[in-house]
Design a protein that fits this description.
alpha+beta, Heat Shock Protein 90, 10 helices, 3 domains, His_kinase_dom, two-stranded antiparallel sheet, two-component regulatory system, 5-stranded mixed beta sheet, Sig_transdc_His_kin-like_C, transferase, nucleotide-binding, Helix Hairpins
């Protein structure tokens, strides 16, 4: 929208112009009278002006400038026009600034969805754009703060709920033992064993929560070393081979013959790969194969895929699987002891390595795909 003045402001501007012209005319007349009086009272000055007049011609003709007053008047008109223009433009910019300040007060009063709607010229337009950008960034910061606040509340709620469940069981069974409400030693051992399992479940949740908060902190450093990804995948496959055989599944590793060395934190990446393989064993119902693949996408980027041919993840859950405490099938996850933080931790670790992770799932394969830079770019990490 083009900027326009109100009727009152136009009247002010017109009045400013009229007053300026009147003052300049009075000033010009005063100067003319003073100069004219000085010339009349000074014969030497008159003779000098006469000599100047005789030497000035307009073109090839003999037409002379016959009066110094004409030249003075022309110069004053040019100077007056410049002064009037400068005064009016100065007042006009003040009015523009007044409109900008008025819009700012309106926004500051709580109308955060409002932006300065008009367009100005020159530097004032840059001011308007800067103000609108500042308001946008402020609103985004406020929304982000609210989102973080909601996220913290959800975190506390979810942690409280997931800890309370095993803690209630532990207190219940220990209460039975404390009150000697068991019939024999076998029943006593059963109570203590159940309490022990619930305590381990609670410890696992606390450990995952600690790891999640740690990988999300920007100040936490990684232990970056040269790492052979192919050898790491082979080692992980070997460590899960027995468990996979018990579930009737086979683990396949597909890596190039040459070494795939990247700069990374071996302990952190091992946690990511272990988590994804463990999930494939736990939740890949009906699957027979788990695939661990690694390949160079380019000289600067490595791709790692961990896939299984088990039951696919529902399409509606694909965009949420990396959300903390999200479970595509909550009952199944609780039975297997999942905290709902594993994939969120994996995503955090991959991002700390300046990489990214995503998932695809269909009737044939569920694939967790990770991309890592070959050279770690964070100069602050040692």
């Amino acid at each position: 929208m083009k900027f326009s003045l109100t009727a009152r402001e136009k009247s002010e501007l017109f009045g400013e112009g009229v007053v300026t012209v009147i003052l300049l005319l009075l000033l010009n007349m005063s100067i003319f009278m003073i100069v004219n009086q000085e010339i009349s009272n000074n014969p030497g000055l008159q003779n000098g002006i006469f000599q100047i007049k005789m030497s000035l011609f307009l073109g090839p003709t003999d037409l002379q400038i016959w009066s110094w007053g004409g030249l003075f008047t022309l110069m004053m008109i040019i100077a007056d026009c410049g002064i009037v223009y400068w005064r009016l433009m100065r007042r006009y910019r003040q009015m523009q600034l007044r409109h900008v300040i008025s819009e700012l007060h309106y926004i500051a009063s709580g109308h955060f969805d409002h932006r300065i709607p008009f367009k100005l010229s020159g530097q004032m337009q840059r001011v308007v754009e800067s103000v609108n950008s500042l308001v946008d960034s402020t609103i985004n910061a406020m929304e982000e703060e609210r989102r973080i606040e909601r996220s913290k509340d959800e975190l506390v709620t979810n942690v409280s709920h997931d800890i309370r469940t095993p803690l209630t069981s532990i207190i219940g069974y220990l209460g039975l033992i404390e009150n000697k409400q068991y019939n024999n030693d076998e029943e006593l051992l059963q109570y203590t064993h159940t309490a022990f399992l619930k305590a381990n479940q609670m410890k696992s949740l606390v450990d995952d929560l600690f790891e999640y908060t740690k990988v999300r902190q920007a100040g936490v450093t990684l232990n970056i070393v040269p790492l052979d990804i192919g050898a790491m995948l082979e080692q992980i496959a070997a460590s899960y081979e027995l468990e996979a055989n018990k579930k009737g599944m086979a683990i396949h590793v597909e890596v190039p013959a040459e070494s795939l060395v990247i700069e990374a934190d071996g302990e952190k990446l091992a946690r990511v790969f272990n988590n994804l393989v463990s999930n494939a064993l736990k939740y890949g119902a009906g699957g027979k194969n788990i695939y661990l693949k690694a390949m160079l996408v380019s000289e600067k980027e490595l791709k790692v895929t961990i896939a299984n041919d088990g039951e696919p993840i529902p399409q509606k859950s694909l965009e949420q699987v990396f959300d903390r405490f999200y479970r595509a099938e909550s009952s199944r996850s609780r039975e297997t002891g999942g905290s709902g933080l594993g994939l969120a931790i994996a995503q955090g670790i991959v991002e700390r390595h300046h990489g990214y992770i995503y998932v695809t799932s269909d009737a044939e394969l569920t694939e967790f795909i990770m991309h890592f830079p070959v050279k770690h770019a964070d100069s602050l990490v040692r």
